[in-house]
Amino acid sequence: MIEFQRVHKAYKVGQREITALEPCDLQIEQGQIYGLIGHSGAGKSTLLRLINRLEEPSAGSILVDGEDVTALSPKGLRQFRQKLGMIFQHFNLLSSKTVADNVAMPLKLAGQMSSNQISSRVAMLLDRVGLTDHANKYPAQLSGGQKQRVGIARALATSPKILLCDEATSALDPQTTAQVLQLLNELNRELNLTIVLITHEMDVIRRICDQVAVLDKGKIVEQGPVAEVFLHPKHPTTQRFVYEAEQLDEDDINSDFERVSGRIIRLTFQGDATYAPLLGHVARETGVDYSILGGRIDHIRDTPYGQLTLSLVGGDADAAIAQLKSAQVTVEVLRG
Amino acid sequence: MNHFFSNIDWFDIWMATLDTLMMLGGSIIFTVLLGLPLGVLLFLTGPKQMYEQKGFYAALSLVVNVLRSLPFIILLIVMIPFTLMITGTSLGVAGAIPPLVAGATPFFARLVETALREVDKGIIEATQAMGASTKQIIFSALLPEARPGIIAAITVTAITLVSYTAMAGVVGAGGLGDLAIRYGYQRFQTDVMVVTVVLLLILVQILQSLGDRLVVHYSRK
Ligand SMILES: Nc1ncnc2c1ncn2[C@@H]1O[C@H](COP(=O)(O)OP(=O)(O)OP(=O)(O)O)[C@@H](O)[C@H]1O
Ligand SMILES: [Mg+2]
Questions:
Q1: Residue A298 is part of which domain span?
Q2: Residues of A with CB under 8 A from a CB of B
Q3: Of the residues A209, A225, A244, which one is the last residue of a structural domain?
Q4: Where are the domains of chain B?
Q5: Tens digit of pLDDT for each residue in A222-274?
Q6: Residues A142-164: pLDDT tens digits?
């Protein structure tokens, strides 16, 4: 478990102080995939790098499994870092070492395994990420997705409980991104691995995260379960990220609304309710006619969800809304 | 043709070549042994690096720059007392090596510093994140990643040392440069001059192509 208590970070640039992270509290449970999203310069990397103390906090304490890591001695810090894995946007593999030697590196540095043990562990890790055939290649001979999988194998070499990912998929195309996210998802399940993940795409959060924190100008402006934040974003920054992910355009939506009469509501289904044949049923019972203005059925991590924007005409609209609400559907009235 | 080569004593040439090779070999070994750690130190204490030390770096930089700006011929003479102290002679191959090393080390150290700066910062960071100690960062990440650059630096330094050995001939160090000056220049034996210059050229060519090959061999980018 990772806990931030009033953690604050300012950089000194010449005489000036630049606040990269305002005092923030954060709690990440064991086995969670925790997403950090924000625009460039929002302080995401700063926050992540505080966890393994690649950055020193200016104030506050950071507890990992109950231990205050801000108080570690240099030797203690090195041992602590061996229990954390990290992957990077630009992979940061050693170009002078083969794939196998890159993966072996953390084990060699830790110096607790014989070379036989190291090679069998490396073989196992490469097999897990599907790169057995590439063991003797150099990073320059691999594609981006393969490089990131080497990065993941390297990060997991010392069997850490926590994996830190700084924009691990930002340099990859959509298909490769999906594969890498899928791998992270599986590893999280298999190893009960806690993953802290930075991204600037809400879609990455939606696909694999359990929890999310939204950062804006060094402040956490919204945090909570992904379904909650994604389906009911409150802060303008969060709303913009969600609209971007859904490829919605606020202006288009508003002009669509002007063309229809009646009430406009937005329904959010989650879990099994997503597949229930509810709308037709309610329409028949209450005599309401509806037209669909927009919608999407998808998954948040593994939970199916649906979101529909409807206009309701005629019949007993209030009764329809009440019925929908009693069927575990969240109803927001966009126009009364 | 026979007439042109009449002045040449091939035994002298052979001995001079051996002297040059020994001076070069001896001085490059000590230059690398001293210059590599100095280069690493310059790098680590340099601006925005792991052990940034503004004052220390500035002082070290100054020493390096002074030694580099000193003409080698002056260094040769200034070094004589010091050379006597460590080798017991200021003549011959042994007498030439200390000034050669003193001249080449600061130059080589700067090249090493530059080669280390070329290493991607992300790689150093990834190594730190694995829990590496400073020593491990240097030996497991920095030096292997900078290896092609360091080999290129050794090549350039060796070639510079070839011309320094020729100058060292002036103060009685022997070698091909000495031969060229004493016979070729002072006694107008042009053929000796031509042969020594050709031999020096061949030496430089061999060093350069050997260095280039090693750089290519170790470059994995
Ligand atoms: N070493 C540093 N020295 C001074 N300022 C820094 C340093 N590192 C980061 N900053 C500043 O701190 C703020 C947060 O930076 P950070 O790298 O955490 O942002 P980020 O959210 O990761 O952005 P990006 O998406 O571009 O990676 C920025 O304003 C940045 O300029
Ligand atoms: Mg960043």
A1: 252-335
A2: 52, 54, 77-82, 84, 86, 88, 90, 92-97, 105-106, 108-110, 138-140, 158, 164
A3: A244
A4: 10-218
A5: 999 999 999 889 999 999 998 888 777 777 777 778 888 888 999 998 888 88
A6: 999 999 999 999 999 999 999 99
